[in-house]
């Protein structure tokens, strides 16, 4: 019998419905909730058999088997708190919340209610990440001691500085909203969580652009254009722009691994570069999509050298290199069977904590910030897979 699934928020991540709505094959979207007329209209067009509503209470009382919360980030916490209280297994798009306090409250509520909670960190299912993790687990570079990530966000001006992302009261900052993905991957590749973090950053380019307008009645693809170059010539930025467009973060993990993360929103190219260094070599991805390469050096070389091994990054059908359908499939299996998942609410909370504390470090004096510890019972509960 199909699971009856609800979707709350039918905006930029609403495309996930295609992987959920498979009537007769295990699941179907039977209800959509969105506070905007456009979101409700899009839902009615794409899912004509679903009930479409503007009222969250309709979702909470509909007897659904699970829900996907795909709202803007600052609405994750109140909506997920309500679905957990209603006992509905919940998929929350990343980041889990925009503050550490809200994340911790959600974990506590999931623990006390026993309601299943899943966070949509789809990069854990991206081939580039899966393949790097397998190489590490196979001992290709020995024991991991350092992880570096450089994130070149070539579309930053269009993706993150023309709507609510640019306003810290809605997003906290892009080390949280955008960086939560990469911080989570760093933790995955390193096999630990950040204990202390310090950071530097600035609003180096987009703060000087005075051409601003309200895009609240639009979505990203309405205004996006590859012709918006160079970054200093951007037009129509959000009326409020007060988040950093370049950031540099240093992390010490609880297992002794040292890590760094750099994020820049005005580069000409758009990709992530991870370098992982172990006691017997290093690996690095050159490109992060299908056909790109993961290169491994595990012999001693003098100067620049060709890699000792090369692994091509695989392709798969679906968004984010095939990660999105895998993500939804894992969530639905979790709802049905409670099987332990690749993603983790605990890991999601820890990526938010790093993003928040790093942002606090930037806006302070750059001092190292201690990541607050969770209650041992909470940690054990989520490590066990709920």
Automatic annotation (TrEMBL):
Q: Per its UniProt entry, which superkingdom is the organism in? A: Bacteria
| Domain GFO/IDH/MocA-like oxidoreductase per the UniProt entry, residue ranges | 130-284
Q: What Gene Ontology molecular function terms does this protein carry?
A: nucleotide binding
Query: Pfam families in the record, alphabetically?
Result: GFO_IDH_MocA, GFO_IDH_MocA_C3
List the SUPFAM superfamilies hit by this protein, alphabetically.
Answer: Glyceraldehyde-3-phosphate dehydrogenase-like, C-terminal domain, NAD(P)-binding Rossmann-fold domains
Q: What positions does the domain Gfo/Idh/MocA-like oxidoreductase N-terminal occupy?
A: 3-121
Q: Does the keyword NAD apply?
A: yes
Is this entry keyworded NAD? yes
Sorted UniProt keywords:
NAD
Alphabetized PANTHER family for the sequence: CONSERVED EXPRESSED OXIDOREDUCTASE (EUROFUNG), OXIDOREDUCTASE
Name of the protein in its database record:
Putative dehydrogenase
Q: Which organism is it from?
A: Spelaeicoccus albus
């Amino acid at each position: 019998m199909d699971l009856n699934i609800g979707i709350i928020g039918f905006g930029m991540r609403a495309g996930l419905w295609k992987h959920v709505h498979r009537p007769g094959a295990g699941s179907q979207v039977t209800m959509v909730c969105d506070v905007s007329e456009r979101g409700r209209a899009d839902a009615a067009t794409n899912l004509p058999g679903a009930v479409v509503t503007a009222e969250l209470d309709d979702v909470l009382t509909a007897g659904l088997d699970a829900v996907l919360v795909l709202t803007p980030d600052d609405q994750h916490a109140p909506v997920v708190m309500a679905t957990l209280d209603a006992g509905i297994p919940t998929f929350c798009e990343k980041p889990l919340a925009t503050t550490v306090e809200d994340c911790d409250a959600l974990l506590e509520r999931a623990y006390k209610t026993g309601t299943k909670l899943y966070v949509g960190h789809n990069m854990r299912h991206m081939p580039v990440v899966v393949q790097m993790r397998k190489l590490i687990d196979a001992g290709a570079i020995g024991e991991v001691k350092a992880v570096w990530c450089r994130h070149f966000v070539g579309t930053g001006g269009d993706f993150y500085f023309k709507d609510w992302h640019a306003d810290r009261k809605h997003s906290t900052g892009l080390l949280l909203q955008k960086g939560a993905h990469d911080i989570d991957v760093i933790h995955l590749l390193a096999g630990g969580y950040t204990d202390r973090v310090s950071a530097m950053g600035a609003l180096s380019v987009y703060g000087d652009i005075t051409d601003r307008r309200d895009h609240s009645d639009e979505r990203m693809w309405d205004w996006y254009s590859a012709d918006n170059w160079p970054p200093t010539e951007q037009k129509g930025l959000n009326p409020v722009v007060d988040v950093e467009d370049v950031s540099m973060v240093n992390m010490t993990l609880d297992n002794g691994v040292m890590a760094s993360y750099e994020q820049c929103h005005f580069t000409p190219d758009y990709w992530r570069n991870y370098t992982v260094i172990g006691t017997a070599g290093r690996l690095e991805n050159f490109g992060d999509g299908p056909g790109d390469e993961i290169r491994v050096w595990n012999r001693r070389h003098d100067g620049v050298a060709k890699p000792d091994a090369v692994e091509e990054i695989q392709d798969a059908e679906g968004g984010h290199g095939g990660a999105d359908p895998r993500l939804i499939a894992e969530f639905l299996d979790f709802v049905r069977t409670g099987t332990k998942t690749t993603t983790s609410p605990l890991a999601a909370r820890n990526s938010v904590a790093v993003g928040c504390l790093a942002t606090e470090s930037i806006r302070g004096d750059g001092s190292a910030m201690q990541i607050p510890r969770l209650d041992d019972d909470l940690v054990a509960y989520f490590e066990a897979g709920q």
